[in-house]
Design brief:
two-stranded antiparallel sheet; binds 3'-phosphate-adenosine-5'-phosphate sulfate; Rossmann fold; four-stranded parallel beta sheet
């Protein structure tokens, strides 16, 4: 069975990609100062940021983005194949992780690695995650949206609580020498400005033309067509492409098509309670 979970620190992870060994490897990882680490809760713009960084580092040239799958150029630290990929890599590494702060904090302590945290309106995350559960055979059957939403709010879904994830990372931003916080919404509303922000953070100066190329190749439409990021390379038995698309809608506010008024009110109440002690102020639509 594909959907057996691996539990680590009381959090469930998809067992087909995670083992106790791979999770321990991540928790004890030796970061290098030249590493760039993309940190996200699932469905928050991970793949988009992987593509943005690839394009920025290649000055808008899409050759690499169109010839190597995202999981090979920016592997997930906690997934079992990562060790092998990093051992073989030479240049500066781009590493992706969905791990919560408390698991990765000891490994990142005193690190000069660059950390990019991408956050997204949790209501849109919940909707995107729900649809993803329906197509990803390595995740449990989500049941109805209402059932899934309860699990999401309780933090019992795979990768744990959205609230703990966002609070953990953003409340400790000052612990990092190099930390960039950016939202999915900002990337949607101002992709050009977001690319410039990433360029500044990575200390890569791109010409206006190189920026335009980068922007073109990381647009939703380009990525939707790019088999190196749209996950159509993944076999049908792992991701059932007849049940949905990884590049689903790419929009802000799709939650409004899915949530009832009551679900939205319950969500807002849990959000206020959970985020009351957060130092970060979020304003979601
Ligand atoms: S995962 O499985 O955690 O790696 O998923 P992740 O990449 O974090 O999130 C997938 C959602 O991001 C959307 N996406 C984009 N939106 C706008 N523009 C671009 N270029 C883009 N690339 C990916 C993708 O469509 C998923 O969101 P939904 O709402 O489901 O469409």
């Amino acid at each position: 069975r594909l959907d057996v979970a691996e539990t680590f620190y009381n959090i469930k992870f998809p067992g087909h990609m995670h083992t106790q060994d791979s999770l321990n490897y991540a928790a004890n990882f030796k970061f290098q100062d030249t590493d760039t680490v993309i940190v996200t809760y699932p469905k928050s713009g991970t793949t988009w940021m992987q593509e943005i960084i690839t394009l920025v580092l290649n000055k808008g040239d899409p050759t690499l983005a169109r010839s190597q799958p995202n999981w090979l150029r920016a592997p997930w630290l906690e997934q079992y194949y990562c060790r092998q990929i990093l051992q073989a890599s030479t240049g500066p590494r781009i590493i992706t992780t969905h791990l919560p702060y408390h698991i990765l904090a000891p490994a990142l302590r005193d690190s000069k690695a660059k950390v990019i945290y991408v956050a997204r309106n949790p209501k849109d995350v919940a909707v995107s995650y729900y649809h993803f559960h329906k197509m990803a055979n390595f995740l449990p059957d989500p049941g109805t949206f209402s059932e899934f939403l309860s699990d999401f709010l309780e933090g019992t879904v795979h990768y744990g609580s959205w609230f703990d994830h966002v609070k953990g990372w953003t409340d400790h931003a000052q612990n990092f020498q190099k930390f960039l916080y950016i939202t999915y919404e900002e990337m949607c509303q101002d992709l050009h400005g977001s690319l410039k922000k990433v360029c500044r953070f990575l200390q890569c100066s791109l010409t206006e033309e190189e920026l335009k190329f980068s922007q073109k190749h990381c647009s939703f439409n380009s990525m939707e067509e790019n088999i190196m990021v749209n996950y159509t390379l993944i076999p049908q038995e792992i991701m059932d492409h007849s049940k949905g698309k990884f590049m689903r809608k790419g929009k802000i506010g799709d939650w409004k098509n899915m949530f009832t008024e009551e679900q939205s009110d319950v969500f807002d109440a849990v959000y206020s309670a959970q985020m009351a002690d957060s130092s970060q102020l979020f304003k979601w639509e």
